[in-house]
Specification:
- Helices cover 37% and strands 17% of the residues.
- By secondary structure, the protein is an alpha/beta fold.
- It folds into 2 domains: 198 residues, Response regulator (Rossmann fold, 3-Layer(aba) Sandwich); 133 residues, Rossmann fold (3-Layer(aba) Sandwich).
- The strands form 3 sheets. Strands 1-3-2-4-5-6-12-11 form an 8-stranded mixed beta sheet, sandwiched between helices.
- Helix 2 packs parallel to helix 3.
- The longest helix has 19 residues.
- The protein is globular.
Length: 381
């Protein structure tokens, strides 16, 4: 499989392991294809001859996209279609840059786009342009507007529920439930996933805990989360804050920094949630600074996305295999075929059974010199 990366802001080459045999999620039994978004008839291609796939990812702020999503997708596409050509670009959280990257790929003749949108509403222009050219679009991780053909992500409402359930469990375990208020620091208002996380968390928190302060955080910025937490501390007072809902691990770092700067010792920090199972987030869980994160197994998400791209390009029916093929509604109320994967809560107790056992990280990567003396590493090494 040849690979091109037009207008990419990062060109690190990752080693890619052989993909699992279980990756085959589609069948060649049927040559018909129904897409929900394309205005023009989609030209079908063959795996034997290969075709051109464009992968657009949204940002570098979160470590997962470069470290995992991109190489896993490359691996999966190579396994499914060795003769396919891949173009890749990361927009680094820039809406205009992503539109430019997409236009370049369409001009270059990609046959299918896999789009992790920076801004789902703004992405409608890209989706419409692709549709006008008969290029199907797979919405990756975020449901872009404009009439995409397929969508793969996690059950994002459930992600928020998992985070909130874990935080309430921590408060009950510490005996602080009802003794104060929590702070909610949500994700970017331009990311529809963030709205789902927030809605899921609110459903669990309602009637169970008082929310003292709540913020939406532009661009998922750890620095902005740090400032928001500083404001919450000033407004509520340290003694009143019994827990913090952080929508992801990067923001959790900024939140914890604000708490430490306010004088809270590491062993007295209130429970703080997270998401994405970033390495530094896992290490903060090991050290006791962060209570939990949400592990979203990115490899199967990337594998499903590659299978969707191949299905759309070849006209073969998609089979979800062990995953459930369902439908979701886009912003216009139109149905989109989707696979929604299950999120998993990770605390110190199940690090070994999740991110380590899945090969996401090794014990050696987690238990570096700064963390080797903590209980988890002492038992694992």
């Amino acid at each position: 499989m040849s690979t091109r990366r037009p207008q990419s802001r990062r060109s690190t080459v990752f080693g890619i392991a052989a993909a699992s045999a279980a990756l085959a999620l589609f069948t060649s039994a049927c040559g018909s294809l129904t897409t929900s978004g394309s205005d023009e008839e989609v030209e079908t291609h063959s795996i034997e001859e290969g075709f051109h796939v464009g992968l657009l990812l949204p940002e570098l702020q979160t470590a997962r996209y470069e470290a995992f999503d991109r190489p896993y997708f490359e691996e999966a596409l190579e396994n499914l279609c060795p003769n396919c050509e891949l173009s890749y670009a990361n927009a680094d959280q820039d809406v205009d840059e992503q539109q430019t990257q997409a236009q370049a790929m369409l001009t270059d003749g990609v046959d299918v786009l896999v789009l992790g949108a920076v801004d789902s509403e703004a992405a409608a222009g890209t989706v419409n342009e692709a549709s006008s050219q008969g290029v199907p679009v797979v919405a990756y991780d975020r449901l872009a507007q404009g009439g995409v053909d397929m969508y793969v992500s996690f059950d994002n409402f459930r992600v928020g529920q998992v985070q909130a359930e874990a935080l309430l469990g921590a408060l009950e375990q510490e005996g602080t439930a009802g003794d104060g208020q929590i702070v909610m620091i949500n994700g970017s208002p331009t990311d529809p996933n963030a709205g789902d996380f927030k809605a899921g968390a609110h459903e669990i928190f309602e009637g169970q805990v008082e929310i003292g302060q709540e913020f939406d955080t532009p661009d998922w910025s750890p620095d902005e989360a740090n400032s928001q937490m500083e404001g919450a501390i000033t407004s509520l007072g340290l003694d009143e804050i019994i827990g913090v809902y952080s929508a992801n691990d990067g923001m959790a770092a900024g939140i914890i920094s604000a708490l430490r700067s306010a004088g809270v010792p590491a062993d007295e920090l209130p429970p703080v949630t997270g998401q994405d199972a970033e390495l530094h987030g896992i290490q903060r869980i090991v050290s006791g600074e962060q209570y939990m994160t949400v592990y979203k197994a990115i490899r199967p998400e990337a594998q499903v996305a590659a299978a969707m791209a191949v299905s759309l390009a070849t006209g073969e029916d998609l089979e979800a295999g062990e995953h459930t093929l369902t439908e979701v509604e886009d912003a216009d109320g139109e149905p989109v075929s989707a696979v929604l994967l299950d999120p998993v809560a990770v605390t110190e107790e199940n690090i070994g059974d999740t991110v380590v056992s899945d090969g996401f990280y090794t014990i050696e990567e987690i238990c570096t010199e700064d963390y080797a003396d903590f209980e988890f590493c002492q038992e694992a090494l």
